[in-house]
Amino acid sequence: MTSDEIRTAFLEFFESKEHKVVPSSSLIPHGDPTLLLTTAGMVQMKPYFLGETVSPALRLASSQKCFRTTDIELVGDPTHLTFFEMLGNFSIGDYFKKEAIAWAWEFVTERLEIPRERLWATIFLDDDEAFQHWRETGLSEERILRFGEAENFWGPAGGSGPCGPCSEIFYDFGEEVGCGESSCAPNCDCARFTEIWNLVFIQFDQDKDGNRTLLPKPSIDTGMGLERMTTLLQGKTSIYETELFALLIDNISRFVGKNYGSNDETDQAMRVIVEHGRALTFLIADGVMPGNEGRGYVLRRLLRRAVLYSRGLGSDRSLLTETAGTVIGQMEHVYLELAQRGDFILKVIQLEEDGFAETLNTGLELLGGLMEQAAGKNVDTISAEEAFKLSDTYGFPIELTSEIASGRGFSVDLAGFEREMEKQRVRAKAAQKFAPSESAALNNTLDIKGTIFTGYTSLKEKTSILSLLVGNDSVGTVEMGQEAGLILVDTPFYGEMGGQVGDIGEISTPAAHFSVIDTIRIPPDIIVHRGRVTKGSFSVGVEVEVEVDRENRFDIARNHTATHLLQAALRQVLGEHIQQKGSLVAADRFRFDFSHLAAMTKEEIAEVQWVVNDRVRQNLAVSDEDIPYRKAIEEGAIAFFDEKYAEVVRVLKIGRPLFSAELCGGTHVNSTGEIGSFHIISESSIGAGLRRIEAVTGRGAEEHIGRRLLDLEKIAKYLDSETEDVANQAQNLSAELKNERRQRLALEKQLARGEAESLERKIREVGGINVLVERVAPTSIDNLREMSDSLRDKMKNGMVALVTVYEDKPVFVVNVSPDLVAKGYKAGEIVKRAAGITGGSGGGRPNLAQGGGTDKTKLDEALKEVEKYIEELGSS
Ligand code: SER
User: Fold this and answer.
1) How far apart are CA 308 and CA 322, in angstroms?
2) What does the pLDDT look like over 307-337, one tens digit per residue?
3) How many angstroms does the Cα of residue 242 sit away from the middle of ligand 1?
4) Angle formed at CA 236 by CA 233 and CA 241, multiple of 5 degrees
5) Which one of 75, 245, 585, 706 counts the least CB within 10 Å of its CB?
6) CA-40 nearest atom, ligand 1
């Protein structure tokens, strides 16, 4: 059977047992901060097991994309993978052990036709129930073995959550391949047995401290590795011999012109490259981008390992894009996202590879230098500081430093490196203001549950003061003139969150007045109104009238709704790979950060702007709805995958049929027409694969465009032109200016050449060397360099220092002939000293350097400094 046939057989089998087949979830676990990446089929079922979300059916089956980081180093052996597919059937409080065991047996023996005499089962120590059900299948007693927690208790995935005792099915390759020990049985280290299917009897919810509570209803979670089953059914001994990998290997082996199977080292390299290439393809398709932390770092690490192995194969061309291309073709019929994002995946890989090639060259050079130095001092260790600098400043991965160093007989102080990393983390944390721990502490002292937010529907409210803060201290009263934080029982003020800034407005009593200049949020939901008492005083418990600044709020709402329209428009114009990476929604403007590899073209920007404005003109209805998180995601609402969302989330929808649906807690307009108009001010890069758009709406857009028109009028006035004709006029003028400049430069050049000739006779001899130190007529630095080059060519054993004042600033060029460089004369040093005197700086190589200053009155002094340098060196 091919892997496709096995996958289909599995899903059809469980469909026939009334299971609903659900698609694989993303490798990025949605709304699950306990996990870096999806590690099992049960990950998307966790909220169902826990009763947090209602499942679409009580019986589910899937083929899940999984990634496990634990085995990265083992990749290349016959069985370990980072990315794999897990086939699983799940009962959400429906059937339990009896059916799970009976169906697993039926599928394996009847559908896959694995001979019964090859099968064994393991169960948890005291699980007599499972024992009984295995006996019912006809499996003999001696083939049902009991093991403890290490072998037969599964989970939780990621430190907390659903888990339970499990039962595993093993395949027996036969005594002849075993270790021959009398104790040899499933779970033995030798090659005789392999686990093919894990049936987990989900019964507990385990917390972070390891405490287990019984779940209301026992459930089933099973997992069978597709690649392993394929290997087995195809009678192979390594996953790389199955059709899943054979094609990939074949592809790159032809590419590098080396046969697979002829050399252990190159075979291993090819296996690692195709495995990692396949994993990268799936990670990128699900939105993981290379980075220095978390899953971004996992991706980067895989890519770098594969690039190094490619180099080992003698290939300077990318074997990863080759592999990714093949994987996409091979798997896109199962995982549509590969087809949708194909080009994007290849581009990400290519860019990251190019970047790494550069890092690698620099790092290798530096590391080589370090090892040479160390050897010179008879030391065989690379220090923690050196390794840290390589990694932190030059991006050269510690794994590589360690690998390369050990290959040349050096060790790396890895423990010290970890300490440096920790110090770095502490520094980074200290730099973060309003750290969550601080706010949590504050929250505890306040002992307040949270503020009720009424601001989706109202902007004015009567409420009372729950608490008053001055700095971080709770106080009873605040007086006129004091800056304070007010916490109210309920409030229409929006506290800064999700990129949307806090509201401003007024809080008052008949005798007192507080001006709110910002509203913030102490996690999870205490809203603090920050500002100043401008009249009277406020005490805890008093009733107040509060009112949000309407105009400001509407400006913010226009911008916030526009970010949603913008995201949808970007996806429409640039593709589905666009993911929001951050945003700032203020009253006067907003910015939106997103993943995209190339700068947007003028046409793309214009099109996105047009799409958004078109939706504004259509005056689409904006509505919100509170629905279960799962349902929202299933309906395609856009979420931040890294964030932990509540069970029930607010989905903001625009248009019918839907133009946009996003999980969002912010405040919005009621219909898109209120936005008025939308205008993109800039589009720029903010890092590898990250772009930023800044835009304005409504009043902001009107103001922005108004200012531009005003500028245009001014320009027209300066050019004595009509605004309609200003572009033509400006073009003519600019052509004229350029022409004049060209002529001036040509003239300057001619003069400079003449002057250089006349300077030849001024070359003098000082202490046996030829020296020319001169101030020349104003000319550009390029001309100065040409003059000094031509003069230096005329003399052996010489140095030329020329200075001039160009565009009102001192400029220096120094040239030193190679024989003098050898004697210790340094052009860079001379320029640095001379330029320094005129309030500037400069530098360059020992034979040629240039610099500039600010104070032209110090020029003579600077020249004297040059003379001094020559004398000093001459006499030394
Ligand atoms: N969650 C179990 C595993 O990962 C069974 O699916 O093995």
Assistant:
1) 16
2) 888 888 888 776 899 999 999 999 999 998 8
3) 23
4) 115
5) 706
6) 4
